[in-house]
Amino acid sequence: MDAGAGRVARSAAPEKGCVDATDSGRVPAAAGVPRVIGRRALLAAPALLSLPARAQVRRNDLEALALPVKQDDTVARGYRRDVLVRWGDRVTFDAPAWNPRRPDPEGSAAQFGWDARVAAIAVPTQQAADGIPRAVLAMLHPTVDPAFAFPGGRDQPAAAAAMQGASLLNLEKRGRGWVVVDGGFQSRRLGGGTLCRVSGPTGGGGSIRGVLGLAGGCVTPWGTLLLAEGDPGPWLARLGNLDPRFANAAGFGWVVELDPFDPQSVPVKRTALGRFAHGDVAATLSRDGRAVVYLTDRRVGGFLFRFLSAGPATGEDVLDSGSLSVARLDGDRFTWLPLPAGVPDPVATAAKAGGSPLDTPSGLGLDPTRPRLLLACHGSPARPAGHVIELTAAEGDDGAATAGAVLLFAAGDPRSAEARYGRAGLPRGSAWPENPDTVTVDTRGRAWIGTDRGGRVGPQAEGLYACDLDGPGRGVPLPIYGAPRAASIGGAALTPDGEVLFTAVRHPGAEPGGNFDRPATRWPEFQAGVPPRSTLIGLVRNGGGAVGGPGGG
After folding, report:
1. For position 420, what pLDDT does the model report?
2. From CA 215, how far away is CA 227, in angstroms rounded?
3. Which ranges constitute the DSSP H helices of 152-232?
4. Do residues 162 and 109 touch, judged by C-beta distance below 8 A?
5. Other C-beta atoms within 10 Å of 445: how many?
6. Which pairs count as long-range contacts for 339-344, CB under 8 Å and 24+ apart, including other chains?
7. Any idea which of 50-59, 291-300, 352-361 has the lowest mean pLDDT?
8. In the sheet where 446-451 sits, what is the strand order?
9. Which helix (H) or strand (E) holds 420?
């Protein structure tokens, strides 16, 4: 056990936690360059201008930080992390106590899932009568690995179908901290048994039961949640003998829309947005008020898609009518190529239309302050470590036919990047992101980027990084958190005041070759016989204030 394990075990003790802006008082919970990448599979190598030395002013308060591989996690100096919700913890009020050695489908359907990814945080437009700030945090549970989820490694498909899906968690601010409300009114689980309406050009007004492999999500400007199903193939093969409905592949692989503030609302699968293996989704508005939805096709050589609604983003079914386009990259510009309406296979159609294959396009992050979109590309055989691209909509309009494109940074060994791109002032001794998978942009001009190698252990731990998007520190990612051994980072979201950064630690200890009884770590509890648990954590500054610093400068 690592030296820090005792600290982690003590902080993990409560069933639910609170993130507070003070050091005590826990509340128990009831310059980019134009030439970036060439078109065919990003053939042209990225070119970067040199940046000023690190001694100059930065917009964030982070410093160089190594992320060693160990059983415990690593937190940047001046910050702490609080354990909030773990695999098996209660989500809905009627959830039973967690018993990992006897998984029960009904109980699992009310508990936090085996895997975890932050999708989005939804904030009500109107304050409650009692004046307490509240929000709903949407968490996804994309996978369930039988080797680590079940004793003996023998798959239990019914329980796995219940463990995956999504958890909607109630948040509220108490004093200077934010609390995850245990069993709150709007807390909700989505999974293999959730009834959904099917709407749009191929919906026919019908319904289907179940969401599978939710991979990404966002809050829309019109107040709903969009949750994107990933590749349903592995799940359908796994569950095909469990229930006849899982034999209908056409019912899965869609984007699901729901009201996060109404626990009785029926999720809707929006077929106009296309059926494929999504990586992430991001929504905004065009200058004339139409809905704009960006979607990634998470494959090596996958595409970037954009949906533009036919009319303004008003009414319940705004996403049922519009046009789907694919991005073609020409030098430093993306052009949106319209696809025929209602195509059954958007991916094949996009290839024929001339869409540009990308290096496993994964995470999407919209800048809330300007028409700027970040795209995290996980990597490919040509560029194994991946990179992050910045798109700026032409004329400041996300509905425009083109967008500028620059490379924010190339992931991988910083020494190689420095030699290859001539980049000055890289932080010596600091971890550098490899395989960026998720990205979130805050209101202070910085991106939060999470890495994911899928449990493969490398020379450094997986990390969550802050990267300035403007100023002298632009394009230099600095770590704030390192995950325990074999864990990945599952996205990020900030509270409205910016004082808590939520992130998810995915499948700790799930190293290739291990199993339920022999994990690579038992984080976060470090108790014999207790398996490691995917966990939602909160990162806060020890002295209070905005995570990452106030920005500006």
Report:
1. 46
2. 8
3. 157-163
4. yes
5. 21
6. 341/201, 342/201, 342/202, 342/272, 343/274, 344/202, 344/275
7. 50-59
8. 74-75, 478-482, 463-468, 446-451, 436-441
9. helix 414-421
Cα–Cα dist 448/373, whole Å:
13
Q: Can you give the pLDDT at residue 413?
A: 77
Query: What's CA 532's distance to the chain center, in Å?
Result: 21
Query: Quick one: pLDDT at residue 36?
Result: 34
Burial of 408 (0-12, 13-18, 19+ CB in 10 A): buried
Distance CA 396, CA 357 (A): 25
Q: Render pLDDT for 505-547 as a digit per residue (tens, 0 to 9).
A: 999 999 999 999 999 999 999 999 999 999 999 999 999 999 9
- Domains of the chain, residue spans: 5-28+64-197+212-541
Report the C-alpha gap between 463 and 460 in whole angstroms. Answer: 9
CB 486 within 8 A of CB 48: no
Q: Which two tokens stand for residue 130?
A: 């009692």
What is the distance between the terminal CA atoms of the chain, rounded to a whole angstrom?
42
Strand partners, 198: 269
Looking at residue 4, what is its pLDDT?
32
- Give backbone dihedrals phi and psi of 239, rounded to 5 degrees, phi first: -105, 0
Which of these CATH numbers, 2.30.30.230, 3.30.980.10, 2.40.50.100, 2.120.10.30, describes 5-28+64-197+212-541? 2.120.10.30
As a whole number of angstroms, the distance between CA 229 and CA 250 comes to: 12
pLDDT of residue 426: 64
- b vs e for 150-189, b when ≥16 Cβ sit within 10 Å of the residue's Cβ? beeeeebbbbbbbbbbbbbbbbbbeeebbbbbbbbebbbb
Q: Which H helix or E strand runs over 503?
A: strand 501-506
Running DSSP on this structure, what letter comes out for residue 16? S
